Amino acid sequence: NFSDVFDEEHFIRYLANDVKVEKNLPKELVKAPKSVRYFKSWSGVDYYQNEISPLWEHRQVIRAAKSDSRLANNFLPPDIQKLRCRTFFQALRFAPPIEALGNLLVERMKSFGPYIALHLRYEKDMLAFSGCTYGLSDTESEELAMIRGNTTYWKVKDIDPLEQRSHGHCPLTPKEVGMFLSALGYPSSTPVYIAAGEIYGGESHMVDLQSRFPILMNKEKLASAEELRPFSQYASQMAALDYIVSVESDVFIPSYSGNMARAVAGHRRFHGHRKTISPDR
């Protein structure tokens, strides 16, 4: 639920003068005609005025089946653009328990000195979906291909990993990230926070990065099992902790340009000049 990740009361209060937000449908609308709509991605205001607004002539309740990327980035009226920015970066605030632990992780990370937050996309599901197998063993590559073949809602099954990589569609491997940071001139004493889920292959794929940057931390190292227990069964809450530490980092580097990487980069930009480095893959 929304309130499991975000501060629902703050969201409602903050937007009160712009949008009336209800937690539940009013009683008079519970049995009203409803409609589920897949709004077009990256749509402008005209689309909502001309195609969506008329739906209310026949339906009183419309549910957006998806909410990601439904509004265009550019060519919007300034008031709409400003409202979106305020919503993203001020109305949306993590739930107090997440915010509290996230800030504690930032404090503990800063105790090592200025740090890099590395959003390392190298989880099993991501590699299986993308077909990126560079640096993996034959056994690992076969496992990922099997996962992709058995996941019915992934439409593309046959993927050429070399072609994917040559087109820049693959994340950097942990080893490549270490080489990249060293090439940029960061000393081995630089603290690095790994914002990620479970790295595919575990420590075997992290050896080179760890040897280059020994102060390699993550939320599991910075927090006790007891502190993480309320969140550990919920991937979105664990990702929220990584998000907080990434936004507050001295330097943010994503190994892959996914949704979280773009959100963090935008959030940092909203707060002023905070260095974000996006490798050319």
UniProtKB/TrEMBL annotation:
A single BP term in Gene Ontology: fucose metabolic process
Kindly list the places in or outside the cell where this protein is found, as annotated in its UniProt entry: Membrane
- Give the bilayer topology: Single-pass type II membrane protein
Which Gene Ontology cellular-component terms appear in the entry? cytoplasm; membrane
A Pfam short name = O-FucT
Family under the similarity heading: Belongs to the glycosyltransferase GT106 family.
Q: What is this protein called?
A: O-fucosyltransferase family protein
State the organism of origin. Aegilops tauschii subsp. strangulata
